[in-house]
Design a protein that fits this description.
The complex is a heterodimer of chains A (about 300) and B (about 325). Chain A has helices at about 10-20, 35-60, 65-70, 75-105, 125-135, 150-175, 175-180, 185-215, 225-230, 235-240, 245-250, 265-295; strands at about 30, 230-235, 260. With about 300 residues, chain A is an all-alpha fold. Chain A has a single domain, classed as Fumarate Reductase Cytochrome B subunit. Classes of the chains: A mainly alpha (about 300), B mainly alpha (about 325). The interface between A and B is large, with 49 and 49 residues.
């Protein structure tokens, strides 16, 4: 959840304590997402797109494009197989992530995972940030000074976690109904299919519209924010976007420990390619839904 | 010589004379009239050389829907010369009813008769009759709705027995004129084989022409979605309800009665239990009495989904608007 930082050199720390360290150049890159987080995002991104593309023919089975979309994956049964594969992969990734969080918290004794400025857990400051952001929307206040994760990012994170747990459970019931019927009555299959579909509508709409806008398409980020692909962000951008975090890091002097080499052109190109593919596929799937619903 | 033979000879002579005079006066001979035909075939005792009756009851023809037609309109070959050859070509109904003949031609019945050599397979006359052909709206017709099961049942006796035991036959007997008979599901002329995936998937739509709500609820299920996408490996209507001997769920002999659900569901879902079959194959999330949890789930998501999209939609719109007015800065 927090970034792995390069150790600060003793010289930097001393300079920081004396308050004599030169301010960071805006173009210097600071670590934001460690490789494990980026890998997790890549798996979630790939499996989510795959799950959406193979599940949408079922959710919108009477849409004119449903059969054609299923045919891309070998028809109804092929799409079902691919869907289960991606579902299992996403469940495995989320299970790995939860195990990793537990390992960091309870084995390595890492602090600040469940509370504090770098935690993903919603806290009073998120409510205050939302209020300040709303005031900023209406020109009634300054831009809020965000910490490591802003409230909309926390919402994304918990929505994916909650959605995966719920849809994963419902998906397993639908995958193994006879086994599930040892624990739950058959009418729960009806609930499971409904919840799986409703939660899918919510997730697809949320990720491909709201997350895309907040993370990538909004002015200032358009067409995409590469931070999740490169792992680092320019100091100038961080100073603007995460004012509270930047100030905290400067105050403690730890900011220099986050300095990483600029992402190589190859990494930036790869990020652009993956990001563009994700955006195009996601928006294409949303267009199909809009077409099916509006028809 | 009997009187009959003399009369026959006279007719032949007269016809020959007419043919000769026609040939002399123009390129085509005048067709034989129906009276000419009746002269021979009108005799109830008329027989072919092999002893088979060739008698035609003119009164039946006159009472049929083909009354305005002359004999040679159908038996064209017989009109060319008299006496006509012993063997005439089969009557080609398609020369007038070409659309129907086209459908029949692609049917399982035509395939059986023409390709598989099943001589008992029906062609037009087997269902519609010959000289007494009547419109399907006439109660006397063999293809009148109420009589269709008997007509098809003449060959498909086992199916008819099952059909007669089902709710659709009972409804028909009780005067429900829209109750389905054989041709409603199987089609009258384009009758297809029933062991194909295409037929399995299509017939669900046929059930839906009457049971629209029931098929609508089926379409909400995994089964219904899968068949919509072309999978024939999951349950369609007939797999649970049966095809011909469909009975109500209240009937304990029905495949969908509570007494038999474990067996019926278990045909696909090996190991299905009484708990398993509490599944609702026709759910309606807006009907509280069919399932309270599903109803609540529906309510919940009808609040959650618009709530989420409403909140973040507005949030994104305001953000966009504010950023635009801020010179594109985030």
């Amino acid at each position: 959840m927090t970034s792995a930082a390069v150790d600060a050199s003793p010289e930097d720390l001393r300079a920081s304590e004396r308050g004599t360290a030169a301010p960071l150049d805006d173009h210097v890159h600071l670590a934001r997402f460690d490789p494990a987080t980026r890998r997790l995002h890549a798996v979630v991104m790939a499996t989510f797109l795959g799950l959406a593309a193979t599940g949408m023919p079922m959710l919108f089975s009477e849409a004119p494009w449903a059969r054609a979309l299923a045919t891309l994956f070998g028809g109804f049964h092929g799409a079902g197989l691919v869907h289960r594969f991606f579902g299992a992969a996403l469940l495995a990734a989320v299970a790995w992530h939860l195990a990793n969080v537990c390992y960091r918290a309870f084995v390595r004794g890492e602090r600040g995972l469940f509370w504090g400025p770098t935690s993903m857990v919603p806290q009073p400051r998120d409510v205050a940030d939302l209020y300040a952001q709303t005031k900023w929307f209406f020109r009634a206040g300054p831009r809020p000074r965000f910490e490591h994760f802003a409230y909309w990012e926390k919402f994304d994170y918990w929505a994916v976690l909650w959605g995966t747990a719920l849809m994963g459970a419902a998906g397993l019931v639908l995958w193994f109904p006879v086994a599930a019927s040892r624990l739950i009555p058959g009418w729960m299959f009806n609930v499971a299919l409904f919840v799986h579909g409703a939660e899918a509508s919510l997730a697809i709409g949320f990720i491909f519209v709201v997350h895309f806008f907040n993370g990538h398409l909004r002015p200032g980020k358009f067409p995409m924010d590469l931070v999740i692909f490169t792992g680092s962000v320019a100091a100038g951008e961080m100073r603007r976007e995460r004012a509270a975090e930047f100030a905290r890091l400067e105050r403690t002097g730890a900011v220099r420990s986050f300095v990483v080499p600029d992402p190589t052109p190859a990494i930036v190109r790869r990020g652009r390619l993956i990001g563009t593919a994700g955006l195009v596929l996601g928006l294409a799937l949303v267009s199909l839904i809009v077409y099916a619903v509006a028809r | 010589m009997s009187i009959r033979v003399i009369r026959f000879a006279l007719v032949v002579a007269a016809v020959c004379a007419m043919s000769v005079s026609a040939a002399a006066s123009g390129p085509s001979s005048p067709p034989a009239t129906s009276e000419d035909c009746v002269a021979c075939h009108g005799d109830a005792g008329a027989r072919r050389a092999d002893g088979r009756s060739i008698a035609v009851d003119a009164a039946r023809v006159a009472a049929s829907i083909h009354a305005p037609l002359g004999c040679v309109d159908c038996h064209a070959e017989a009109g060319k010369e008299l006496p006509h050859p012993d063997r005439l070509a089969k009557v080609a109904c398609g020369s007038c009813h070409d659309d129907v003949a086209g459908k029949y031609h692609d049917s399982i019945h035509a395939w059986a008769k023409e390709k598989a050599g099943l001589v008992g397979a029906p062609s037009c006359a087997d269902c519609h009759g010959t000289h007494d052909v009547a419109p399907h709206t006439a109660a006397t017709s063999r293809v009148y709705r109420d009589r269709v099961p008997a007509t098809c049942g003449a060959c498909h006796a086992g199916v008819r027995e099952k059909y007669d035991a089902g709710v659709h036959a009972a409804a028909l007997k009780n005067g429900a004129s829209n109750a389905p008979v054989c041709i409603d599901c199987h089609a009258a002329h384009a009758t297809a084989r029933t062991d194909t995936d295409a037929w399995r998937l299509r017939v669900t739509g046929e059930c839906g022409t009457c049971h629209a709500n029931i098929v609508g609820s089926y379409r909400r299920t995994f089964h219904g979605k899968a068949t919509s996408l072309g999978s024939a490996r999951v349950a369609a209507c007939a797999d649970c309800h049966g095809a011909h001997d469909i009975r109500t769920a209240a009937d304990t002999t029905s495949t969908v009665s509570n007494a038999r659900l474990v067996e019926t569901c278990g045909r696909c879902h090996q190991g299905a239990t009484a708990k398993f079959v509490q599944y609702d194959p026709h759910p309606d999330p807006s009907d509280y009495s069919r399932g309270a949890v599903l109803w609540w789930a529906n309510r919940f998501y009808w609040l959650l989904i618009p709530g989420c999209f409403g909140f973040f939609g507005l949030h994104s719109a305001l953000w966009y608007w504010r950023s635009r007015n801020d010179g594109g800065r985030s």
